[in-house]
């Protein structure tokens, strides 16, 4: 995934336009970059495994009628980079093609690269070889490929540039005699473009004709952003799965190791006694009235925070098909969104024709932050401090406001299951459950200050927590819990959340499940495997037990069914844990041995 941009002109480039477009493209990813420049001597393609601003400084643009580029968030093909150049076709692609492995055997050309985008160039070249019209390439590519595709495709020898998209993550605008294009309308507005339009149908532009295309690669990467998942049976054997005989609530399945749990004379826990129904939707008509002032006759009219997880995907389905809104989805990538999660983002947005705006953080830095905090945690293991490993994702809430400002859209609609309540995570820090809280995430200054005080006390036991990630952690907590939110609605306040219906609906979109677990929850989250392994090993339960207990209370599951489910769902997810630890550069065996040695909260 990346941000793409370009300028086609018969005049000199306007000063400052290209740097502005490139800078905004970096919001979508900065892992690598590329440029295409039409020169008198031919087409000059520059590719680099560093950020676009650095590449622009190293490159002399000069007089040109065409310049286009990208700033990339790497999802696959670490050693490859865009623009893709093969068989006389130059491709810059934003999105993920989920069926490229199925396409290659049907083509006359053989695959040369790992990156999925190469297949677009091969499809185009096959089409042209067969005598097809250059103007039809966009249509052929979109009919062949599944997943999100927003593309700038040049055929220099024919003097044609094609712009096309199947989800609208590509815009064009006019500025004088020049046409500018970019992944988002905001960038074009910033440079003063008029007539900014979202691209779906193929736009065909004339560009300089030339047979010569030269490619230069700049390589200086030292960190592997996509660790190869090499599974090791010796490592996998280190993972334990104890099955302790825990006393559990006679109504739900919460065990005696749950923080602040108490049982009455009938064996029913206080969590059950204090539970209020969460999955009781208000009339849908209320939401239709609430969103009516936000509807627009043309263009997107709501923002949907979108992780690619099952609940946000099902929520998007409802927003498009039931609520009849025209959303822009927003995804925050902090380095722990798995490739599976990204592929599901791609599937859903392509199928529904929905624009996806990505805000990618500094992935390497975020992963370094996680590593520093995990090392500190391993020196003084504390179940109440596990949440610091996921503190970096709280900037998700910050950038909702960024996208609102950039798009001019006020309303954001969230697809968060009302049953995802995990009191125990703060409970292990010493904070009792607030049974009156009706939101998934706790809020309120007093509660947060108490939480931060207890966390600070725990941090004092391992000074390694006081590292360069601290500001990132605290600022993320601010945006999640303190910043006032407006024009903010939850879709499942108005639609019943039913797991069977959710899974059946997502299957219609060929939604991908994980190979290492039976659950469809948290499978796009790279952190879940490790933290649930820790909770289960030490306390004998995970967030799956709390989720299934809520389903029991809602009448969606029997207690017997829930016990069978969690026995399977709590199994260690070796591939997920392996990927996570490789991504942050920590040794699997060293980490798991420390976790396995932590004293249990139950008798073995």
TrEMBL record:
Record's keyword annotation contains Plastid: no
Gene3D superfamilies the UniProt entry points to: Glutamine Phosphoribosylpyrophosphate, subunit 1, domain 1, HUPs
Catalysed conversion reaction: D-fructose 6-phosphate + L-glutamine = D-glucosamine 6-phosphate + L-glutamate
EC class of the enzyme, as a word: transferase
Domain Glutamine amidotransferase type-2 intervals: 2-218
InterPro entries referenced in this protein's UniProt entry, alphabetically: GATase_2_dom, Ntn_hydrolases_N, Rossmann-like_a/b/a_fold
Record-level GO BP terms: fructose 6-phosphate metabolic process; protein N-linked glycosylation; UDP-N-acetylglucosamine metabolic process
Keywords: Aminotransferase, Glutamine amidotransferase, Transferase
A GO MF label: glutamine-fructose-6-phosphate transaminase (isomerizing) activity
EC number: 2.6.1.16
Matches recorded under PANTHER family: GLUCOSAMINE--FRUCTOSE-6-PHOSPHATE AMINOTRANSFERASE, ISOMERIZING, GLUTAMINE--FRUCTOSE-6-PHOSPHATE TRANSAMINASE (ISOMERIZING)
Protein name: Glutamine--fructose-6-phosphate aminotransferase [isomerizing]
């Amino acid at each position: 995934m990346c941000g793409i941009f370009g300028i086609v002109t018969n005049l000199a480039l306007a000063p400052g336009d290209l740097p502005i477009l490139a800078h905004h493209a970096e919001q979508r990813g900065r892992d690598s970059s590329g440029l295409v420049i039409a020169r008198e001597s031919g087409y000059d393609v520059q590719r680099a495994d560093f950020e676009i601003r650095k590449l622009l400084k190293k490159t002399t643009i000069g007089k040109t009628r065409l310049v286009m580029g990208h700033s990339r968030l790497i999802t696959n093909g670490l050693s490859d980079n865009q623009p893709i150049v093969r068989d006389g076709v130059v491709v810059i692609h934003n999105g993920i093609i989920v069926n490229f492995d199925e396409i290659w055997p049907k083509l006359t050309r053989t695959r040369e690269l790992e990156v999925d985008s190469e297949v677009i160039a091969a499809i185009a070249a096959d089409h042209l070889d067969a005598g097809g019209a250059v103007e039809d390439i966009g249509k052929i590519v979109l009919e062949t490929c599944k997943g999100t595709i927003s593309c700038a495709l040049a055929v220099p020898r024919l003097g044609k540039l094609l712009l096309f998209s199947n989800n609208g993550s590509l815009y064009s605008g006019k500025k004088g005699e020049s046409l500018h294009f970019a992944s988002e309308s905001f960038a074009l507005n910033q440079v003063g473009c008029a007539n900014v339009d979202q691209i779906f149908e193929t736009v065909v532009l004339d560009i300089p004709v030339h047979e010569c295309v030269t490619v230069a690669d700049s390589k200086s990467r030292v960190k592997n952003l996509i660790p190869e998942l090499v599974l090791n049976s010796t490592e996998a054997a280190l993972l334990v799965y104890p099955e302790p005989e825990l006393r559990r609530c006679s109504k739900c399945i919460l065990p005696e190791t749950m923080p602040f749990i108490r049982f009455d004379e009938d064996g029913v826990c206080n969590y059950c006694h204090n539970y209020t129904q969460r999955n009781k939707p208000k009339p849908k008509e209320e939401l239709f009235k609430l969103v009516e002032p936000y509807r627009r006759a043309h263009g997107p009219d709501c923002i949907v925070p979108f992780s690619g997880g099952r609940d946000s995907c099902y929520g998007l389905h409802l927003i498009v098909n039931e609520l009849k809104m025209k959303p822009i989805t927003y995804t925050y990538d902090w380095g722990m969104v798995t490739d599976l999660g990204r592929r599901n983002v791609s599937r859903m947005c392509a199928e529904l024709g929905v624009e996806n705006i990505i805000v990618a953080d500094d992935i390497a830095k975020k992963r370094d932050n996680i590593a520093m905090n995990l090392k500190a945690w391993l020196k003084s293991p504390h179940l109440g401090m596990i949440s610091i490993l996921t503190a970096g994702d709280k900037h998700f809430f910050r950038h909702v406001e960024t996208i609102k400002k950039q798009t001019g859209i006020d309303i954001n609609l969230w697809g968060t299951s009302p049953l995802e309540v995990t009191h125990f995570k703060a409970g292990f820090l010493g904070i009792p459950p607030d049974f009156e809280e009706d939101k998934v995430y706790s809020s309120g200054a007093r509660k947060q200050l108490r939480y931060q005080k207890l966390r600070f006390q725990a941090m004092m036991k391992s000074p390694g927590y006081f590292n360069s990630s601290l500001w990132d952690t605290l600022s993320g907590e601010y945006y999640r819990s303190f910043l006032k939110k407006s024009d903010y609605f939850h879709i499942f306040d108005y639609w019943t959340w039913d797991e069977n219906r959710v899974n059946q609906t997502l299957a219609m979109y060929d939604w991908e499940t994980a190979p290492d677990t039976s659950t469809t929850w948290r499978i796009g989250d790279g952190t879940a495997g490790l933290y649930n392994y820790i909770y289960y090993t030490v306390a004998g339960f995970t967030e799956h037990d709390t989720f299934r207990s809520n389903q029991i209370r809602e009448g969606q599951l029997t207690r017997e069914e829930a016990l069978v489910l969690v026995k399977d769902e709590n199994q260690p997810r070796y591939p997920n844990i392996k990927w996570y630890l490789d991504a942050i550069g920590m040794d699997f065996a060293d980490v798991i041995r420390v976790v396995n040695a932590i004293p249990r909260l139950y008798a073995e």
